[in-house]
């Protein structure tokens, strides 16, 4: 995929999210920064509980009251070039912004649709909240339903429970594009469906993206899916982005030990004999994170420096960033693994 | 509830229609969910009625014995004379074997005749029921509607703004009043506001309506009906609203955790829309079943509260019938209450099927 | 029910003091003097209240608590200071007993902490403790006045009933008797009968519910049909009828009658719970291991439902008290003094309801019943936390 590198749609600066728990502050997301360009697909990968979903809910300000969001800004650029800070929106302005500029496809399509309303009601609801007439909404959504290969007329009149999981996921996808947003956040849209449905949803997504040219933030712990759909990949660990860069660079020339571990833990079709290596231990306590690099306790490359000094995010060639003290050794290892795999 | 399915209704399997006969027809009728439920309801009513029929005749003492005693001592009749006189007076033959009495009752029931009251000579039980039922329906029914709707609205608000001062206040009050029995609350209100503070005169609120006003469709009469029903109604509302409120609150809280609420917020819907169509409608579902079931208990009213306020409802008449051993009246009122309970259960099924598209009443039993 | 129905007696006090020696000695032995003294007091109090029935179980409980402070589980490698090679895995009887007791004591302490933490629940607990103290220790402090006192009539007053005064803090009733003495003596029977009714109903419900859920088939069908049948009959009116049919020689019969009419709701819930539990892996595992029905009920199913059953028990006790007071209120059961409900009934019957000076006589039992019910409601709130180890552990 190619995208316009000059036009940044969403620019996240130093975003942190803390949950207030009885034991103390849970630093679910800390100092995350990234840029999302027009037409770009950014995949966020990482284990469960690494802060991916919190980060995304923070972007659309849908976190519960126990969460405190801080940051230098979430800068959003409209199509006409105006720039705003999402964090400074009033509730009313936020409601207008949501879905018309930034929509979201949640994980678990099963529960994302109100069981007592018809699909049509939910379409009309969304449209009228953003000042679009019923006829226009109907026309748009029927077209979108066809584009996601649904039986448009029937689905439109259905209740959610009358649709299969894959159909519901496609309804959500179509619904997210109803107001032609520039950014669509997708939180594990393919986890709850079978492999064939996953395939067709990814195909549909690629077609729509090519036609409507929106940017996507794609959350997944399925690395294969991420590799297929993403332009850029960001690895998250313990609430931080530890590595970010073009998809092929990150996957084949990993510079962070955690990214490499993730890749080694994922099964690959191309390699038959290779042993899968799970990552020992579990994600760190986010209330009292370990000193130094948060990953050092589980890291095969860890040295004394890693145990005391937090690694800074360093820029490398090709627009890549990584926060690892042992980046050279990791890279070497990654290249060797790749060579062995190709051989 | 075995016939409630979460799948779309399946087409009815084709029964052989070439050779229609009575058995076949009955079988197909039985397969129809509504017919089946209706017939099951009738059987339940019959069973309960039979049970109560024999049970109330086990009660020690009978109106006849009391009357015979009275006639023998006052008018110096012989036992035989008093016996016959009482039998004609009461329209009730205590000599008739119990099973024959039962068959008399059943055959009357089939014809829609509940017989005559034993203690009130010549008054039919049906007319007693028809006369007193509307009072109970009005008073308890209104109270139920008020406490349910208020409870729903408050519970929704409390769940949505959980932890606010409003939530804490109403939760505390609800817990307290839901723990106090209704007649205890009635006594407290009478004693504190009636006797001590003298906000109202208790004599003014005993009965169903001011006896000095001629019945009719006049403002005065209706106002009086409302005035007399106010206190019992208030007590019914107070004693039931806490439970509705707290149930709705917990239902709302669990609904708020659903994904579709987050999605609705992310779609930029207005708060009002989310509160009504997304949170409210879903949170209400479990309560609607309970509402429909409580409708069945409206008819029985509250024996104690009606007796306390001398309210001319069915509950008070049941009490009078029990103390006077008026078998037929007791029997009739029990029948009405049982029927109400049975049919409100069916109503609950229908209501939930209508409100929740996921629950569809199958046209036939699922295998 | 011997023991519970006796009020505090000197013999009970002696029993309590003797019982108290055990935890006290344990406290001294383990150098946990505070726990020992606490156990001594608890034993004395409960022995004083209920004789052997209160004293003996309390020995076990307090001893367990004292022990739990001092006991070190040598079998547990995490707490044992000895090297692993020195740990013996042979369990002597005494050690087994000690460990069981220490575990019991630990969970008692955790329950107590959970109870204290929940403010509303603790308030309810204090309320119940107050009523227990009132009905058990009150009678030995305040003498019961059963005879009418006509001489107490105020000059010029039309009725004997009188408002509270210094001499009679809650006033006089319609026969000129001290209301306070009736309050103190009149609660015990009502409370005990209600609790009996609740316990019997719960026992029936749990037994039949587990049977229906576990055995299934014909048993399930028959029991469910009976339950549905009883549920259809309006409960309170039927109780009115049956109250006349059944001859009440004892309050126990009334409790049984109530229980017979009020088990179906809980029975259906237990049945549903058992059915859903039966699907769980650990129960299936127990079935597969052929551990026997009783084992499955007592070890696998019951612990998972205990908080639910306890909350329901309290609910049933409330309904029982509601029904019993209602029956008395309508005058449909034999009236026996002293009794809170009878106080309300006679107050109404004697027409003193509308006399302002009768407030003391009428409000006392009314407020007492309302407060008792309220305490039950509040207490049931904290039961969930007490019985659920997952909620309890976050101390």
SSE blueprint and pairings:
The complex is a heterotrimer of chains A (343), B (367) and C (395).
Chain A: E1 4-20, E2 25-38, E3 41-45, H1 52-59, E4 67-70, E5 73-77, E6 83-85, H2 91-97, E7 102-105, H3 119-129, H4 134-147, H5 152-157, H6 165-176, E8 183-187, H7 195-212, E9 215-219, H8 223-229, E10 232-237, E11 240-246, H9 247-252, H10 257-265, H11 304-308, E12 314-316, E13 320-322, H12 327-342
Parallel strand pairs in A: 3-9, 3-10, 7-8, 8-9
Antiparallel strand pairs in A: 1-2, 1-4, 1-5, 5-6, 10-11, 11-13, 12-13
Helix pairs in contact in A: 3-4, 4-6, 6-7
Chain B: E1 4-5, H1 22-31, H2 33-56, H3 63-74, H4 79-90, H5 98-110, H6 125-160, H7 165-178, H8 182-196, H9 219-256, H10 259-266, H11 271-300, H12 303-308, H13 314-323, H14 327-355, E2 360-361
Antiparallel strand pairs in B: 1-2
Helix pairs in contact in B: 2-14, 3-4, 6-7, 6-9, 6-11, 6-14, 7-9, 8-9, 9-11, 10-11, 11-14, 13-14
Chain C: H1 10-29, H2 33-50, H3 52-70, H4 93-117, H5 119-141, H6 179-186, H7 188-215, H8 217-232, H9 235-245, H10 251-262, H11 264-279, H12 281-288, H13 293-329, H14 340-349, H15 359-387, H16 389-392
Helix pairs in contact in C: 1-2, 1-3, 2-3, 3-4, 4-15, 5-6, 5-15, 7-8, 7-10, 7-11, 7-13, 8-11, 9-10, 10-13, 11-13, 12-13, 13-14, 13-15, 14-15
Mean pLDDT of chain C: 79
Q: Strand-residue fraction of chain C?
A: under 5%
- The helix-and-strand class of chain C reads mainly alpha
CATH architecture label of the largest domain in chain B: Orthogonal Bundle
The CATH topology of the largest domain in chain B is given as: MetI-like fold
Q: How many runs of DSSP E, i.e. beta strands of chain C?
A: 0
Largest interface: B-C, 44 and 41 residues
Name the quaternary structure. Answer: heterotrimer
Principal-axes geometry of chain C comes out as flat
Category by helix and strand content of chain B: mainly alpha
Q: Spell out the helices and strands of chain C N to C.
A: HHHHHHHHHHHHHHHH
- What would you report as the Rg of chain B, rounded to the nearest angstrom? 26 Å
Q: Biggest β-sheet of chain B: count, sense, barrel?
A: 2 strands, antiparallel
What percent of residues of chain C adopt helix (DSSP H or I)?
over 70%
CATH superfamily of the largest domain in chain B: MetI-like
Poorly predicted spans of chain B: 1-17, 361-367
Number of helical segments with 4 or more residues of chain C? 16
Mean pLDDT level of chain B: 80
- Compressed to H and E, one letter per element, the order of chain B equals EHHHHHHHHHHHHHHE
């Amino acid at each position: 995929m190619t995208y316009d590198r000059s036009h940044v749609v969403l620019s996240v600066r130093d975003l942190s999210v803390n949950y207030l728990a009885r034991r103390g502050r849970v630093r679910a997301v800390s100092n995350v920064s990234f840029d999302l360009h027009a037409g770009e697909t950014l995949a966020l990968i990482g284990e469960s509980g690494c802060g991916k979903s919190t980060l995304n809910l923070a972007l659309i300000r849908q976190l519960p009251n126990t969460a405190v969001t801080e940051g230098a800004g979430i800068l959003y650029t409209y199509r006409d070039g105006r720039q705003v800070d999402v964090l400074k929106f009033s509730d009313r302005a936020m409601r207008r912004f949501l879905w018309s500029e930034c929509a979201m496809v949640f994980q678990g399509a099963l529960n994302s649709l109100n069981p007592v309303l018809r699909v049509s009601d939910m379409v009309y609801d969304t449209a009228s909240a953003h000042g679009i007439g019923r006829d226009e909404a109907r026309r748009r959504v029927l077209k979108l339903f066809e584009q996601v290969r649904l039986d448009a007329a029937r689905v439109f009149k259905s209740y959610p429970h009358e649709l299969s999981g894959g159909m519901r996921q496609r309804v959500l996808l179509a619904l997210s594009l109803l107001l032609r947003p520039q950014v669509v956040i997708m939180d594990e849209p393919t986890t709850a469906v079978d492999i064939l449905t996953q395939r067709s949803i990814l195909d549909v997504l690629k077609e729509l993206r090519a036609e409507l040219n929106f940017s996507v933030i794609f959350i997944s712990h399925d690395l294969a899916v991420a590799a297929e759909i993403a332009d850029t990949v960001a690895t998250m660990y313990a609430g931080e982005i530890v590595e970010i860069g073009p998809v092929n660079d990150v996957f084949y020339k990993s510079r962070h030990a955690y990214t490499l571990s993730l890749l080694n833990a994922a099964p690959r079709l191309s390699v038959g004999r290779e042993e899968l290596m799970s990552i020992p231990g579990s994600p760190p306590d986010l209330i009292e994170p370990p000193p130094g690099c948060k990953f050092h306790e589980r890291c095969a490359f860890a040295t004394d420096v890693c145990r005391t000094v937090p690694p800074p995010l360093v820029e490398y060639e090709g627009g890549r960033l990584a926060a690892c003290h042992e980046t050279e050794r990791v890279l070497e290892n990654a290249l060797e693994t790749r060579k062995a795999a190709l051989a | 509830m075995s016939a409630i399915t979460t799948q779309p209704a399946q087409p009815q399997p084709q029964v052989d229609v070439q050779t229609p006969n009575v058995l076949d027809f009955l079988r197909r009728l039985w397969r129809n969910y509504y017919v089946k439920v209706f017939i099951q309801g009738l059987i339940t009513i019959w069973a309960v009625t039979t049970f109560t029929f024999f049970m109330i005749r086990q009660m020690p003492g009978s109106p006849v014995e009391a009357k015979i005693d009275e006639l023998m001592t006052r008018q110096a009749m012989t036992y035989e004379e008093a016996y016959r006189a009482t039998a004609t007076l009461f329209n009730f033959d205590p000599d008739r074997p119990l099973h024959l009495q039962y068959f008399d009752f059943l055959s009357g029931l089939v014809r829609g005749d509940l017989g005559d009251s034993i203690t009130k000579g010549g008054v039919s039980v049906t007319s007693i029921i028809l006369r007193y039922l509307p009072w109970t329906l009005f008073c308890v029914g209104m109270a139920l509607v008020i406490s349910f709707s208020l409870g729903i609205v408050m519970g929704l608000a409390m769940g949505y703004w959980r932890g606010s001062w409003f939530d804490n206040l109403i939760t505390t009050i609800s817990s307290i009043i839901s723990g106090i029995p209704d007649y205890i609350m009635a006594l407290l209100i009478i004693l504190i506001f009636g006797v001590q503070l003298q906000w109202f005169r208790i004599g003014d609120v005993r009965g169903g309506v001011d006896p000095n006003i001629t019945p009719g469709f006049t403002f005065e009469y209706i106002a009086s009906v409302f005035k007399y029903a106010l206190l019992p109604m208030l007590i019914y509302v107070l004693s039931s609203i806490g439970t509705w409120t707290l149930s709705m609150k917990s239902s709302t809280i669990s609904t708020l955790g659903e994904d579709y609420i987050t999605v609705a917020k992310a779609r930029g819907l207005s708060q009002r829309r989310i509160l009504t169509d997304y949170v409210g409608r879903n949170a209400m579902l479990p309560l609607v079943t309970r509402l429909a079931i409580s409708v069945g208990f409206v008819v029985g009213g509250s024996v104690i509260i009606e007796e306390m306020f001398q309210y001319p409802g069915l509950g008070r008449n049941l009490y009078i019938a029990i103390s006077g051993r008026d078998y037929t009246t007791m029997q009739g009122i029990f029948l009405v209450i049982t029927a109400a309970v049975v049919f409100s259960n069916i109503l609950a099924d229908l209501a939930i099927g209508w409100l929740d598209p996921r629950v569809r009443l199958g046209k036939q039993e699922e295998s | 029910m011997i023991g519970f129905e006796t009020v505090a007696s000197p013999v009970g006090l002696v029993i309590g003091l003797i019982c108290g020696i055990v935890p006290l000695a344990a406290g001294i032995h383990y150098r946990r003097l505070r726990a020992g003294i606490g156990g001594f007091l608890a034993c004395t109090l409960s022995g004083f209240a209920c004789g052997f029935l209160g004293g003996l179980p309390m020995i076990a409980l307090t001893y367990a608590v004292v022990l739990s402070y001092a006991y070190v589980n040598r079998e547990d490698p995490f707490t044992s200071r000895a090297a692993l090679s020195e740990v013996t895995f042979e369990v002597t009887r005494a050690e087994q007993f000690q460990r069981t007791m220490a575990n019991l004591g630990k969970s008692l302490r955790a329950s107590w902490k959970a109870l204290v933490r929940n403010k509303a629940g603790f308030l309810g607990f204090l309320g119940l403790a107050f009523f227990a103290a009132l009905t058990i220790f009150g009678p030995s402090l305040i003498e019961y006045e059963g005879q009418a006192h006509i001489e107490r009539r105020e000059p010029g007053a039309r009725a004997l009933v009188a408002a509270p005064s210094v001499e009679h803090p809650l006033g006089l009733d319609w026969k000129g008797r001290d209301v306070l003495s009736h309050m103190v003596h009149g609660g015990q029977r009502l409370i005990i009968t209600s609790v009996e009714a609740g316990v019997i109903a719960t026992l029936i419900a749990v037994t039949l519910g587990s049977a229906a859920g576990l055995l299934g088939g014909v048993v399930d069908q028959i029991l469910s049909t009976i339950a549905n049948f009883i549920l259809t009959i309006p409960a309170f009116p039927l109780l009115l009828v049956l109250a006349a049919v059944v001859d009440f020689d004892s309050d126990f019969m009334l409790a049984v009658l109530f229980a017979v009419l009020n088990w179906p709701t809980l029975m259906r819930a237990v049945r549903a719970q058992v059915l859903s539990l039966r699907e769980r892996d650990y129960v299936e595992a127990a079935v597969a291991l052929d551990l026997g029905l009783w084992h499955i009920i007592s070890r696998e199913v019951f612990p998972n439902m205990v908080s639910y059953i306890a909350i329901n028990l309290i609910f049933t006790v409330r309904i029982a008290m509601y029904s019993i007071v209602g029956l008395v209120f309508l005058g449909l059961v034999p009236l026996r003094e002293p009794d809170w409900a009878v106080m309300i009934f006679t107050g109404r019957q004697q027409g003193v309801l509308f006399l302002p000076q009768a407030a003391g006589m009428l409000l006392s039992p009314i407020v007492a019943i309302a407060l008792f019910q309220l305490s039950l409601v509040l207490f049931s709130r904290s039961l969930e936390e007490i019985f659920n180890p997952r909620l309890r552990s976050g101390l």
